[in-house]
Amino acid sequence: MKKINVVGTSGSGKTTFSRALAQRLNVPCIEMDALFWKPGWTQSTDDEFFAKLAEALDCDTWVLDGNYSRTTAIKWKDVDTIIWVDFGFARTMWQAVKRAVLRVRDQRELWSGSGNRENLRMLFSRDSILLWTLKTYRVNKKRYRALIQNPQYAHLRCVRLRSPTQCQAFLAECSP
């Protein structure tokens, strides 16, 4: 495993897992949200985003954290492993709620240099990450199931982790 994309619904724990895996393998962890979001919660254009992503992936090894289906051609061009963090709905929603509440409470900057922080208004808006998780959970499950069964990606190692215990076991088996 040299080029790994960790995917999963918002709140699934993919960022936490990606960071732990990258640390375990001693490789860079690239967070797609950090490439996409500009200061003031401004979204990058596709051209900007695709260029940033291509540049970030221009190295020998990495763990890429994120979905963004419109980037599949870029991010899976050289990927050798897809890890799908696929916890049950209740666990995923609980993690999303817990994360959102902690982010609002702590007012941590989400991506270094962006100044972006979550607030209460965001939690209850139509752009809420919690609403996003609710809307995309089943869609993402269907999409990733189809992608890992797609013959076009048969050459990739696909790992589906369905619990924190499976995640920990997978990490324990990994070595640089």
Structural class, judged by helices and strands?
alpha/beta
* Biggest β-sheet: strands ordered side by side in the sheet: 2-5-1-6-7
CATH topology of the domain at 3-88 and 139-173: Rossmann fold
How much of the polypeptide forms β-strand, as a percent range? 5-15%
Query: Largest beta sheet, briefly?
Result: 5 strands, parallel
GO molecular function, one term: kinase activity
Protein name: Shikimate kinase
Keywords: Kinase, Transferase
InterPro entries: Cytidylate_Kinase-2, P-loop_NTPase
Question: Please, could you describe this protein's structure?
Answer:
Helix 5 (89-106) crosses helix 7. This protein has helices at 14-25, 32-36, 46-56, 72-75, 89-106, 120-123, 129-149, 164-173; strands at 3-7, 29-31, 37-38, 42-43, 62-65, 81-85, 157-161. With 176 residues, it is of the alpha/beta class. The termini are close together. It has a domain at 3-88 and 139-173: 3-Layer(aba) Sandwich (Rossmann fold), CATH 3.40.50. The strands form two sheets. A five-stranded parallel beta sheet has the order 2-5-1-6-7. A two-stranded antiparallel ribbon has the order 3-4. The protein has eight helices and seven strands, in the order E-H-E-H-E-E-H-E-H-E-H-H-H-E-H.
